Amino acid sequence: MPSSLPTLEEPPFLDWPLIQNPEHATCREFLSACQYNNTALALQLASDQEPAALTFGLNRALDCLHLQTARQLLLNGVQWDAQTVMSASNSFSAIKLLFDFGFNVNTGVLGGDTLLRMVVSRNDGPAIRFLLERGANPNLGPPHFTNARIDQIRVISNSGVTLNQAAARCTPEIFSLLLDHGAVLSNSIPLHRAAGGRADVPIPPGERIPMLEYLVGLGLDINAMDDAIKICDDGRGQRGSPLMYAIVYGRVEEARWLLEHGADPDLKTPYGVSAKDRAKIHPAEHELWTLLRDPRFKRH
Question: Residue 221 burial (CB < 10 Å; 0-12/13-18/19+)?
Fold first, then answer.
């Protein structure tokens, strides 16, 4: 475990500048050359482009995994932006390319995001290890809630979003690795996110049960409310217990496991909502209702 995490009052931040003159005579040709891996033409046209157009070309090359073109652009001084980091996050090779050119592992991007959070969301184990070995701070990330415009959101130092993503997508081994590298458990709601949450790819039924087992083994309360994301004491901004998350997102097998291990279906949030209330979004014949009506799981 590292002796200490990087202490940055204000991590580096990348914006997303726009091309000021998209109708420039050779701009489209340059971007097309980057997109279709015509390195020679891209370099020939590069000297005539504004900085933002050069960065757009770099991003197109990375989006298409044309790493040789991207490398040549970087060698010629093209600067990266927030989109560059997002594009690179989809490929371990592209990530390593950025580091070849001095990328700061704790750089924040538009919306308060970080490269570590992005690769955790893809469950990319090798990339996660690579970033942690280079000092990535798992507590940096976006706030849980904000009313600010996306271009005004900055990285905060006590974000639990990366741990939440790991609970929802990764293995217990990866979650443990984040803890070993200084992730603060109390910033997050991992048991809730393992039980249910939005996913950009389908998650098979019961797939998150090993994570639930691991987290309960860490001593997390199976009936805890999601207090780490609350906005105020009356419960605004919260959904409730892990069971409520499983129900809202229709995770039948995860809900079954929680009930079998002590989840209380009658427990209420600070504003008086129970798991059974949450289940009203599902039709009466839904399997979740069968579980909630099962007398074995009655607590009161």
Answer: exposed
